[in-house]
Amino acid sequence: MAITGLKTWSDGDALNTTNLNNDKTILAAKFNGNITNADISASAAIDTAKLSAKHYEIVLNMKVEGVAWTARNASTTKIVAVAGLPADVTATQYDIVEIDWCFFCGANNIAAAPAFDIDWGYFGSDTVWTTTTAVKNAQSTGTLTAQQGSIGVIAAPAASVTTSTTRHEVFALRIDTVGDFDAADQELTVSIKLKRNAGLRT
After folding, report:
1. Rounded CA gap, 120 and 130, in Å?
2. pLDDT tens across 22-71, in order?
3. Is 193 exposed, middle or buried (CB count within 10 Å of its CB: 0-12, 13-18, 19+)?
4. What whole-number percentage of the chain has pLDDT above 90?
5. Coil, strand, or helix at residue 186?
6. The pTM is what?
7. CB atoms < 10 A from the CB of 28, how many?
8. Looking at residue 85, what DSSP letter applies?
9. Which domains, ranges and CATH numbers included, belong to the chain?
10. Which SS3 state, helix, strand or coil, does residue 87 take?
11. Could you tell me if 75 and 105 are in contact, meaning their C-beta atoms sit under 8 angstroms apart?
């Protein structure tokens, strides 16, 4: 935003204290706490180490292999992987921009498609999981033949998560449907892309 109010000098103007001090006051007021986003050039390339708002955009990855999935398939809703956000001193909100997943089928066919959930929550003092935000429910990997893979993109999920100042919350990858995900050499990876939208100043 342009600085306004400065005197436009003309030939013959007197260099008096009133005019000079007025310009000084305007400039001092601008630079002492009144610089806004509009004053920053898009090409300024400010070093992120100088910004209070760190961890602005984050990608979290979770992976589970068949042996871990089948070890917990006595019942569904079991957690098979977790990923957390950086700790913060304030409650900070992140929009979930996109979720990408990739499922690889190993030696055996997948005739009954597994499905997974992604939740945001925490383990309480009794070690019991509590979900605070259900991010995605029953995402199917589809059916596959041996040595094939499938990928999927969940664009703009209708969810955001907020960090807590009193407990450490994480994303959990959970079994929704066991399917034919077996202990051979199958693998599921999930990437969660987040963008911080609140708590940008400490």
Report:
1. 9
2. 888 888 888 888 888 788 888 888 776 676 665 678 899 998 887 777 66
3. middle
4. 14
5. coil
6. 0.68
7. 10
8. P
9. 1-45 (no CATH), 50-196 (2.60.120)
10. coil
11. no
Highest mean pLDDT among 73-77, 151-155, 194-198: 151-155
Compute φ and ψ for 99, nearest 5 degrees.
-125, 125
61-89 average pLDDT score: 73
Q: Are 32 and 3 in contact (CB under 8 A)?
A: no
Reduce the DSSP state of residue 99 to 3 states and report it. strand
Residue 98, classified by CB atoms within 10 Å of its CB into exposed (0-12), middle (13-18) or buried (19+), is: middle
Residues contacting 185, CB < 8 A, separation 6+: 65, 66, 104, 106, 107
Q: For residue range 158-184, what is the model confidence (pLDDT) as tens digits?
A: 788 888 888 888 999 988 887 877 666
3-state secondary structure of 159: coil
Sequence length of the chain is 202
Q: Residue 133 forms beta bridges with which residues?
A: 120
Q: How far apart are CA 9 and CA 20, in angstroms?
A: 11
Pairing of strands 170-177, 115-123: antiparallel
Structure tokens, 148: 């094939």
pLDDT given at position 202: 46
Give yes or no for a contact between 66 and 186, defined as CB atoms under 8 angstroms apart. yes
